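> tool_call: predict_assembly(chains=two)
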Amino acid sequence: MKLARYTPSFDLGRVADFDQWLRHPFAGFPAVGQLLGEFLPGAAGRLAADVYEDQDNYYARFELPGVKKEDVKVEVHDRLLTVSTQRQTKAEGQEEAYSLSRSISVPESVRPDAIAAKMEDGILTVTLPKQEERKPKLIQVN
Amino acid sequence: MNATCCNPASTATQTTPSVGVTESLQKPLYNVIGNTDAYEVRVELPGVAKSGVKIDLEDNVLSIRGERGSATPEGWKTLHRELSGLGYQLRLRLNTPVDEDKLTANLENGVLTLKLPLKEAAKPRRIEVQ
């Protein structure tokens, strides 16, 4: 049996997805971004994320249209990957400001020192390399 | 301006992915700013490269198509998915004549900025009282 902390304010809205979410290695992140996103897509601090893996890496992808790469902050702390951005624009009497962030818990097998991030066409891709598998060590008998 | 036109049947939103349609598209977020000289349309097209943008202006309908490049690189296994990955389509009906020849488009960081200068005849004119 699996125990999940129940946080009533985090209404995920999509139960089926949540189930799936629990099963994959990034489970247990604070699902804050989901809170309002279902009702106001793209306008409520939600930063949607995709998570992939291949043999060597995990990949997390975020959509950040209109955000320059200098304005993106990618942090890893205590096995928690946090992507955040803040923007303020002023033009012809119009003022616009927003901040977006999303945290994802990172599996233990990730090497925190080798995490890389790339911005392309408004999509941020964070590459999280997996720890090299420890090979069985053969000990010579003398 | 600013009125969405002729929502095609193939347009799908993120919450209701259409099934059985040859082409699934989503409507991008957009913003229109207008003044007396020009309209500026900003369309969010994350994941679309410069070569994937197609802009048409026909019969006062401005259509913007954004094709994504290869969605996920080969060998990537999806663990969790929230982004839609669909291409984009936006059609806007213009109710003001714009100068097609001076239309400019610029794609930067996944945001397409279109500048549509108004035709001279459509600009407000001040008439001097003799």
